[in-house]
Amino acid sequence: MTAVLVAGAAGYLLSGMQATTYTAASRIVLSATQDFQPLGREAFGEATRFIAKQVSIVSTRPVLEGASSELRGSITPDDLARVVKVEASGDDDVITISASAPTAAEAADRANAIVTAYRDFVRRQVQVQATAAAAATADPAVADRIRTEAAAYDDGVAVVEEAVPPSDPASPARLRDAFILAVIAGLATVAVAVWRRPLSVDGPAWAGADRPLVLGTVPVRSGRAGRPVAVDPADHALVLVALGYARQSSPGPVLVTGTDWRGGPSVAIGLAMSARAQGRRVLLVDAAPESRALVTRATRGQQPHIGLDALGRPGVPATDVLLPVPGGPGVFLAVLGTDDNGAVDDVEIHRALDRAAEAVDLVLIQVGPLSASPIALALLRHAGIVIGVVSTSDAPSALTSLRNHVEMARVSLTGVVLTRQARWGLPQRSRPRHVLSRGTARDTAPPPSTANGHGSHPGNEAAPAGNGVPPAGVVTVPTSPPAVPRR
């Protein structure tokens, strides 16, 4: 907090030391959509290209020299080029010319001088073309027609809105500069706190371990049979911010794994809900066919018709691959892997992840522990970031084993998320939580594989469906899968 206040005060004081500058703007509306044609013929070309050409002409040397003469030499063409900004308003015919100066009157004079010089330049060019075209014909009627077209075209400008002296300076803006520096200082403070946070803050068992980069600590709430699993997006907000810094250098999919089968699904869901709360679109990929914990928790056991790898094939619709997650728009679920032998088609998965990345802001791939899941090892090569989920009660050897398996694939462990058990019945925070689906009794080791590849085991079975009515206070918003570009 002190750093933020100091930065804000410094920004306010430094801003006051800057020279006062005023900015005025004039606007012109073009009457022409093409260059002058002596015989009035329609030229081939887009109107947007013509407007872009006129914007370039405004900044050319002849126009700047004409504006300098209009200002009686008070500023050179080179200096004028540095204080003038020319913009076109989208695809319409409006060109805005802004000019800066130490005084409000000078700023308005400069902007208006540029407009006058531009109109004179275009008018001279039209006259030169018309004179040359009329001299090239022996037909008086054609010559008269050329002169008529030139008079009608004139300077190609329909309306001019002259600049007026501004009432307030454009700079310095003390409050704005103070706010910007305060925000930067606040973000820097948070970043330093996140990256330097020691691993041992939540468990003395880690005190002697080789500390990795800790992205944050989150509570894990294991569901009970017949009870919904509650996820508080605020619990994972700090981890999401730290993840954003890490993704600046590695913007690919985020692979979430763990030292065992606990915690990973909860962390993946929590990150997705936190990103959803910020208005971002997220794809959750359940790549743990041994347990399908994300399917059980996020969509109440429902899963897409086909796996995510099918998205890498031509003609596969996104509706068959991506399933909206209840609770609000922006989060979708896909599955990957149908058996436990780790066999994956790298080409199809690469294409599928590329298509998915174009439709969402964040791809989270949740896999089982690398020491027990073959498909988890196979997917390491497709991840831009690898996050390890470690419980604060785990022994240091668990982290060592996780690191060894990651490095075996010649991939770096980006960081770890520490989890601590949150008990049911104890008040956590007053803010509401996002309820996803019916929970599980507890998140333990995976079940043995069955014929359909899903399996079941005591303590990880899906809750009864009941009458299909969501719990009180839970709103399910049906959404459509994101538009995935076809290959």
From TrEMBL:
GO molecular function terms noted in the UniProt entry: kinase activity
SUPFAM superfamilies xrefs: P-loop containing nucleoside triphosphate hydrolases
Signal peptide: none
Chain spans, region Disordered: 428-487
UniProt keyword Cell membrane present: no
Record's compositionally biased regions (Low complexity): 458-478
Keyword Kinase annotated: yes
Keywords: Kinase, Transferase
Protein name, as recorded: CpsD/CapB family tyrosine-protein kinase
Organism: Geodermatophilus normandii
